């Protein structure tokens, strides 16, 4: 989102459009995840995963060739649906189609690979940012997202359906054939896994019969106090993890770094890479200490770390606001000439005291004069809000070489 808002054909892109384009993907991922369970039960894990890769590749291509904001939004919707299907079904596939003795490791690796993927994405974004970023580079960033999905599609053509799904759907012989491949023909492991699957299927049928008599599982959870308590605690832990703002920090890392005063986009991207590497390294700490310290101590320690981090981020934003350059707009307005058509908008921007307040307004941008070391809050130019103001030395009419219009959106 550093380069996309200034790309030809996608301008002007204000804050609302940015928020919609960014948030539509996780929003549609939730929709995809909601429908993935029923789909994988009916059609199989493998089919849904293959479908998700095709949807994701389609989304990456549409975003890469997007010539308008609407097309970009459509591509982001495809990406979200693909992510939702894959994020729900791939762990299930790993759990059902992997050998018992490494199953836990593979399922844990899935979560680890998400963080690894973020590192790779940031690194590739950094590399592509040197290649005509406003016209070609950002398109390559989106297109690259389709490559891992395409590799997954090709690989899954040769992978089998899970033995558990096959057994549940009356294909016992095929399930045995898949288990022979998984365990390299080891009869002892094959029989053990078949017994596990048979037990699971029997319990599943029993559960479905109970649901017909006493209602859905969620209703029984609500009626059972100790189960309800455990469900509530687990749900709240997940909710607080998201409400702490981790996704906001990750999605808007570039904007946060830029608001701290770093103007060079390449520098911003490489700092984002460092943050994504920290996000990748972080899980190794609890994995190493969990058996020594226990779950509860590690959880409390991590909560303290989150609180301290959020306080530091909040304080830094306050400091940015207090130390922000003052707005000399009223004086400049008197000297700039007759702009009677823009008086109302100009007065709204002039009333803001400094740069920080100015750039957080949708209608205003901060115009900096490197020669006089002063700054002015002007209304943005509707046709190109990221480059020009509507009046003053940062307008398209003046084109003052000493003036810059950063964060004017």
TrEMBL record:
Membrane topology: Multi-pass membrane protein
Location of this chain's protein in the cell: Membrane
InterPro entries per the UniProt record, alphabetical: MFS_dom, MFS_sugar_transport-like, MFS_trans_sf, Myo-inositol_Transporter, Sugar/inositol_transpt, Sugar_transporter_CS
Name of a matching Pfam family: Sugar_tr
Keyword line: Membrane, Transmembrane, Transmembrane helix, Transport
Source domain of life: Eukaryota
Protein name listed in UniProt: MFS domain-containing protein
Lineage of the organism: Eukaryota, Metazoa, Ecdysozoa, Nematoda, Chromadorea
